[in-house]
Amino acid sequence: METTHLDAELGQQRSYDSTDYERQEDFSVPLSTTSDKLSAAHKDSHVRSLIKGITYRTLSTIATVTITYFVLGDVSVAFEIGFVDFFVKLMIYYMHERAWSFVTFL
């Protein structure tokens, strides 16, 4: 029987033969890395993506209505533009957010 340095420290003896490479136990550290956790974190649910889109678009629409009012000086036109802007860009944001859930290289 052959004893390795680690086996000796642990008080163990083990015999090695030419077929050990086929039967070796895998004591490697699992490859659960930060990138695995990050890619899992990038998988937002549909509801989360929608809520993120609504909150973002609400803030952005307030900015759009405010800017439109100062440029045109007409509150009703500013709100009409803000209304259309909200829904069009919400859909764009949602599709963009869902597309990013498939990105795995970042």
Protein architecture, described:
With 106 residues, this protein is mostly helical. It contains five helices and no strands. It has helices at residues 5-10, 20-23, 34-41, 46-72, 75-100. Helix 4 (46-72) runs antiparallel to helix 5. The longest helix has 27 residues, at 46-72. The mean pLDDT is 77.
Record the SSE blueprint:
Blueprint: H1 5-10, H2 20-23, H3 34-41, H4 46-72, H5 75-100
Helix pairs in contact: 4-5
The beta-strand count equals 0
Task: Please tell me the overall pLDDT.
Answer: 77
- Strand fraction equals under 5%
Percent range of helical residues: 55-70%
Q: How would you summarize what this structure contains?
A:
67% of the residues lie in helices and 0% in strands. The chain starts with a helix and ends in a 6-residue tail after the last helix. It is built from 5 helices and no strands.
Q: How would you describe this structure in keywords?
A:
106 residues; mainly alpha; 0% strand
